[in-house]
Design goal:
The complex is a heterodimer of chains A (477) and B (96). Chain A is of the alpha+beta class. Chain A is 41% helix and 20% strand. Chain A has a 9-stranded mixed beta sheet, with helices on one face. A 3-stranded antiparallel beta sheet of chain A has the order 6-5-16, with no helix packed on it. Chain A has a two-stranded antiparallel ribbon with strand order 4-17. In chain A, strand 7 and strand 8 form a beta hairpin. In chain A, helix 2 runs antiparallel to helix 3 and helix 14 crosses helix 15. Chain A is elongated and about 100 Å long. With 96 residues, chain B is mostly helical. Chain B has a two-stranded antiparallel ribbon with strand order 2-3. In chain B, helix 1 packs across helix 2. Classes of the chains: A alpha+beta (477), B mainly alpha (96). Strand 2 of chain A pairs parallel with strand 1 of chain B.
Chain lengths: 477, 96
């Protein structure tokens, strides 16, 4: 039997506001447990929530970037359930009137993935479970009340690769909008997946399972692969797939059932009486629309068109907004896009990785980097020396000229000086010269190597080759 | 109008983590059914053209600015907890 795979993703992103969604506690990550709480986010009796204006704005930014319709009238609702990370015994979320609905995101192949809705809600606290014989859990409410948006896609993804691409694109967009840190490792971006299989000749969707705990792109991809295999084996054997929630177990590399859908909780949603409805002025929404930055895909296309970058380069350089801005600043100073791109992809990203720096923390001045590219183009230094200079610029912040001077890196382009080294090499390696004259062109390469070593890599490579050939040809006569 | 059964009341009570004796269940079922009769009366009103009510107040758009204010000192936050450990609320282990 052959099956079509049907996948939909539910993505939660923590919003990068300064304060929580309903109170003025900080949202900073990593504080000592329970030092960022107040009567509102602890759910103490009588405490009243007030909605954070910026959280609403950020949700609308996401909605507009994902081509959603923004609701003229929206409200918050209560979702009731007991879990110790939720101190009020309900979560304030949005049920039937989300802020954004009916948008889409386009994959590279041109396929449109529908975004059914984006709504605003509050995050829960963090539970730490004891590992010893004494069984208890500890609750830290610092995260309780941090604003979240939940982005729900349509069941339009057909492969694990499409799901990964969708999530990568979504992450990139949210980062460009500067509304979320989107760090999967820190939990500021989280993903659940719904997946079902249907025989290719059928119309109706099969029974789906919901996958949780997909905390990395790898986990998402592997959990979906696993689930496709598991479900197709069941169906091929004539068995039914159970509607259930399954958790990805990283250690076991498999999904495990945690709750069947028959036990699905009855959340008894109702309008949140402590918060009044949201009625947005179209002028306010238009103002936000105007303030949206150029989005990743548009930037990538522009980088290919305006800078003539190959798609691979444009994709990598626009993967982070700050990196793209750095690239543009360099080219505004000195225009050589492909050379800049090569240095960024090869040297800069490696050095950032080594120092564990983010693209917002590039320690190189874009103008100095432009100067370096110019020095290379003018033949002052070779590309390989340029890489050493760049590494020093990265570490010390010094200007390229200073480093070249201090290290004596200047390229030797003086004919007299080069001829002296060339003639010494010819004298010191008669065998290679004989080989060359005997027709072994490759022997010249050995001589170039010797001369480069002698000049510490500073000989102008093109001039060196020209002069060497001229000298060797002379010997033929 | 559908009447609620004792089973319905038990289910709702379960969602709210409440336990009732057989007597209490019988009383509550009667009371809930009387309350539902009021709603049945409301349902007779013609509401054609009336927009759904999201809130009883006419007030809309009450927001706060995104400005940080001091949180509670941890001792205050944990003061009412029945058990405290390592600066956290300690609860019976619940795992999904």
């Amino acid at each position: 039997m052959r099956f079509d795979t049907v996948i939909g993703l539910e993505v939660h992103a923590e919003l990068a506001t300064a304060t929580k969604i309903f109170c003025a506690c900080t949202t900073k990550f990593g504080g000592a447990p329970n030092t960022q709480t107040c009567p509102v986010c602890l759910g103490l009796p009588g405490a009243l929530p007030v909605l954070n204006k910026r959280a609403v704005e950020f949700c609308i930014r996401a909605g507009l970037a994902l081509r959603c319709e923004i609701a003229k009238f929206s409200k918050m609702d209560r979702k009731n359930f007991f879990y110790p990370d939720m101190p009020k015994a309900y979560q304030i979320s949005q049920y039937d009137l989300p802020l954004c609905r009916d948008g889409f995101l386009t994959l590279d192949c041109g396929k449109k993935i529908r975004i059914n809705r984006i709504h605003l809600e509050e995050d829960a606290g963090k539970l730490t479970h004891s590992t010893g014989t004494e069984r208890y859990s500890l609750v830290d409410y610092n995260r309780a009340g941090v604003p979240l948006i939940e982005i729900v896609s349509g069941p339009d993804l057909s492969t694990p690769a499409e799901a990964v691409e969708y999530l990568e694109k979504l992450q990139r967009i949210l980062e460009y909008l500067e509304i979320s840190d989107c760090k999967m490792a820190e939990g500021s971006l989280r993903c659940d997946a719904n997946i079902s299989l249907k025989p290719i000749d059928r119309e109706e969707l099969g029974t789906k399972t919901e996958l949780k705990n997909l905390n990395s792109f790898k986990a998402l991809s592997r959990a979906l692969d696993y689930e496709i295999k598991r479900q197709s084996e069941l169906l091929a054997a004539g068995q039914a797939v159970r509607a259930e929630t399954r958790k990805w177990d990283e250690a076991k590399q498999q999904t495990l059932s945690i709750r069947s859908k028959e036990e699905t909780q009855d959340y008894r949603y109702f309008p949140e009486p402590d918060l009044v409805p949201i009625e947005l002025d179209p002028a306010y929404i238009a103002g936000i629309a105007k303030s949206l930055p150029e989005l990743p895909d548009e930037k990538k296309q522009r980088f290919m068109a305006d800078y003539g970058l190959p798609e691979y380069d444009a994709d990598l350089i626009t993967s982070a907004k700050r990196l793209a801005e750095f690239f543009e600043a360099v080219n505004a100073w000195y225009f050589n896009p492909k050379a800049a791109s090569n240095f960024i992809m090869g040297e800069l990203l490696r050095l950032l990785g080594e120092e564990q720096l983010k693209s917002a923390e590039i320690p190189v001045n874009p103008a100095s980097f432009g100067d370096l590219l110019k020095l290379i183009d003018e033949g002052e230094i070779s590309v390989s020396v340029g890489k050493q200079v760049f590494a020093q610029m990265f570490r010390t912040g010094a200007a390229p000229e200073e480093i070249i001077k201090a290290e004596g890196f200047k390229q030797i382009s003086d004919e007299t000086q080069l001829l002296a080294v060339i003639n010494k090499a010819i004298k010191d390696h008669p065998q290679s010269v004989q080989d060359y004259l005997g027709g072994k062109e490759k022997a010249a390469g050995f001589l170039v190597g010797q001369i480069m070593r002698e000049t510490k890599g500073q000989a102008n490579p093109k001039l060196l080759k020209d002069l060497l050939h001229r000298e060797l040809e002379k010997l033929k006569e | 109008m559908r009447r609620v059964s004792e089973e319905d009341v038990k289910y709702v009570a379960g969602l709210a983590r409440l336990n009732f004796s057989a007597d209490e269940l019988r009383t509550l079922t009667g009371e809930l059914n009387r309350i539902l009769q009021y709603f049945a009366k409301l349902n007779q009103v013609d509401t054609t053209g009336a927009p759904p009510t999201a809130h009883v107040l006419k007030v809309k758009n009450r927001f706060r600015e995104d400005t940080v204010e001091p949180s509670l000192p941890r001792e205050e936050a944990l003061k009412n907890a029945s058990t405290v450990k390592d600066g956290s609320f300690q609860v019976p282990q619940i795992m999904e």
